[in-house]
Amino acid sequence: MRHAPASERVWDPFVRVFHWSLVGLVVLNLWVLEEGEAPHEWAGYAAVTLVLLRVVWGFIGTRHARFADFWPTPARLRAHLLAWRRGESRTATPGHNPLGALMMLTLMGLVLLLGLTGWLQGTDRFWGNEALQDLHEALADGLVVLAGLHAAAALVMGRLERTRLVKAMFTGVKERY
């Protein structure tokens, strides 16, 4: 079993700014800005732009920001779940664990789908299309549920791994206690 250092630099400034900017844009679009109005649309486009930049950063960024460091392959997921079954879940991994990576990729995919369905609603072909509007709203509802699950998992995993995960997303350093 690997002994983790007391603290480790994990999240670079781009990842942290991306994360909190995306959180802010999602909160604005869901609960502050009026649906269908220009500020709502621009916040959506900004969120899509952030995700696309994060995808690029996943190939060229720092070690723990790269997809190669955390991509949730079936083998990594299986090993992670088997470790959980054996009670070895208390050892923190640098960066995302495979389930956290799967959640992150799912959330980013939802943001991209929201951007696409939102943009399509403004096109001549799909203007006023209720099915597309319903899909857009369902995707937004799904994003809220999964983002809530993501936040809860960060709190639970931080506790189980004795790691300050939320603080790490502000400072970039994972501290163990």
From TrEMBL:
<feature type="transmembrane region" description="Helical">
    <location>
        <begin position="12"/>
        <end position="30"/>
    </location>
</feature>
<keyword id="KW-0472">Membrane</keyword>
<dbReference type="GO" id="GO:0009055">
    <property type="term" value="F:electron transfer activity"/>
</dbReference>
<keyword id="KW-1133">Transmembrane helix</keyword>
<feature type="domain" description="Cytochrome b561 bacterial/Ni-hydrogenase">
    <location>
        <begin position="10"/>
        <end position="172"/>
    </location>
</feature>
<dbReference type="Pfam" id="PF01292">
    <property type="entry name" value="Ni_hydr_CYTB"/>
</dbReference>
<protein>
    <submittedName>
        <fullName>Cytochrome B561</fullName>
    </submittedName>
</protein>
<feature type="transmembrane region" description="Helical">
    <location>
        <begin position="139"/>
        <end position="160"/>
    </location>
</feature>
<keyword id="KW-0812">Transmembrane</keyword>
<dbReference type="GO" id="GO:0022904">
    <property type="term" value="P:respiratory electron transport chain"/>
</dbReference>
<dbReference type="InterPro" id="IPR051542">
    <property type="entry name" value="Hydrogenase_cytochrome"/>
</dbReference>
<dbReference type="InterPro" id="IPR011577">
    <property type="entry name" value="Cyt_b561_bac/Ni-Hgenase"/>
</dbReference>
<dbReference type="InterPro" id="IPR016174">
    <property type="entry name" value="Di-haem_cyt_TM"/>
</dbReference>
<feature type="transmembrane region" description="Helical">
    <location>
        <begin position="42"/>
        <end position="60"/>
    </location>
</feature>
<dbReference type="GO" id="GO:0020037">
    <property type="term" value="F:heme binding"/>
</dbReference>
<keyword id="KW-1003">Cell membrane</keyword>
<dbReference type="GO" id="GO:0005886">
    <property type="term" value="C:plasma membrane"/>
</dbReference>
<feature type="transmembrane region" description="Helical">
    <location>
        <begin position="99"/>
        <end position="119"/>
    </location>
</feature>
